Amino acid sequence: MAETVTYAAVGCGGMGRRHLRGMAALQGASFCNMELVAACDVKREQAELLAGEAEALLGRRPRVFTDVQEMVRALPELRAADVTVESGLHVPVAQAALEAGLHVLCEKPLAVTVRGCTRLIETAARAGRVLSVAENYRRDPIHRLARALIDEGAIGDPRLILQSAIGGGDRISMTIWRHMKDTASMPVDAGVHEADLLRFYMGEFRLVYGESRLHERVRYKGEGNAGGPGGYYGGYRASMPDRIEPTGDDAIYAHISFRNGTVGHWIDDHAGHGERRNERVVWGSKGSFVSSGNRIGRPIRLTLDDAAPIEDAAILEHAPGYRLDPQAAELFGGERVWRYDFMFPETDAKLIALEYYELGECIRTGKAPEVSGEEGRADVALTYAPFEAGRLGRVVSLEDMLDGSADAYQREIDERQGLLG
């Protein structure tokens, strides 16, 4: 077995508990290269909860801490931190971990603003440490297959991608902070997944025009899927008020020009009422395909000119070079997966296991992670581009987003986080 890399879970709430299941999936695989040795959270009871679950799942209890610096002093063998605190705290917590000499896997979005991402990228460079972003949608075998269909010319030259995620109504989504400007709001915290997939499918964006909206001025606790994905967020409901007044925009509508010439239309509306929608459709010079949902294993539907749609294993004939990495193939049951039937918690754990494995290999070998700090920053830049374009009344470029010349919406956040000057 390769050497194991010791790491700490920093942030032990809902996402931290999901990541723990990912570690359990990695430990059960033949390629395990990480070891959880510490749980750190400012709320000691949360760290104790995760430590207890880790003992049950992994067979050993990590040490519990409430401060990163104290943890590093007590555990000189510690090499990495998995940062899963709420999005608005990514910069100070991940920066502290990097400056303490730890490699970092940080949950998406890398930061709440583009400047925040840059701060972490620069800190990692100065410290000589790996900075990886936990962006798991693109690791889904279905999205790997979609990318292969594009790369191998199954639909010809790509021309148009329509991506829509619509739903949510006026309900509070899992936690209050996901509706507040300073702590990401839904199109940033959740929509950054979709931004990453747009870039994963089509490459880098060039120009964006769009707008954002705050549709729902009041949101309600309500019922429904109160525990969020996997049910890990149910504990927040007891202290949650019956209604809140959001401060962050809850919908974006964008027209995107990609460097490869493809046009993208993107809707990420977390205030949608009525019919829900979650799909992406790609049209090319020879055909199209539909990829619906994420982390659910639903087959892609490929349609070529004058032919019946393909939604079965025959789709693999149109991507002959498609192969999952050996680690993904082991977890998902084959190297040419075109569908799967795992329940969400199991799928989620498998994808997080792949994130952990990659981090360990990057630390051991010095290779760069697939979703590096720069990649995560570009995802945040694309997510905020419609916000900024709408306020400026003009098209914005990737360069505008990276150099801070398009920051009308983000500037207030940056000021409060001390990221200006």
Individual helix count: 13
Structural domain tally: 2
Strand content: 15-25%
Would you list the SSEs in sequence order as H and E?
EHEHEHEHEHEHEHHEEEEEEEEHHHEHH
For the record, the CATH architecture of the largest domain stands as 2-Layer Sandwich
CA gyration radius, whole angstroms: 21 Å
Instruction: Specify the structural class.
Output: alpha/beta
Which fold name is given in CATH as the topology of the largest domain?
Dihydrodipicolinate Reductase, domain 2
Shape field: globular
Strand order of the largest sheet: 15-14-13-7-12-11-8-16
Tally of extended strands? Answer: 16
The residue-averaged pLDDT reads: 96
Low-confidence stretches: none
Task: Explain what you see.
With 421 residues, the protein is α/β, with parallel strands linked by helices. It folds into two domains: 139 residues, NAD(P)-binding Rossmann-like Domain (Rossmann fold, 3-Layer(aba) Sandwich), CATH 3.40.50.720; 203 residues, Dihydrodipicolinate Reductase, domain 2, CATH 3.30.360. It is 35% helix and 22% strand. It is built from 13 helices and 16 strands. The strands form three sheets. An eight-stranded mixed β-sheet has the order 15-14-13-7-12-11-8-16. Helix 4 packs parallel to helix 5. It is globular. The mean pLDDT is 96.
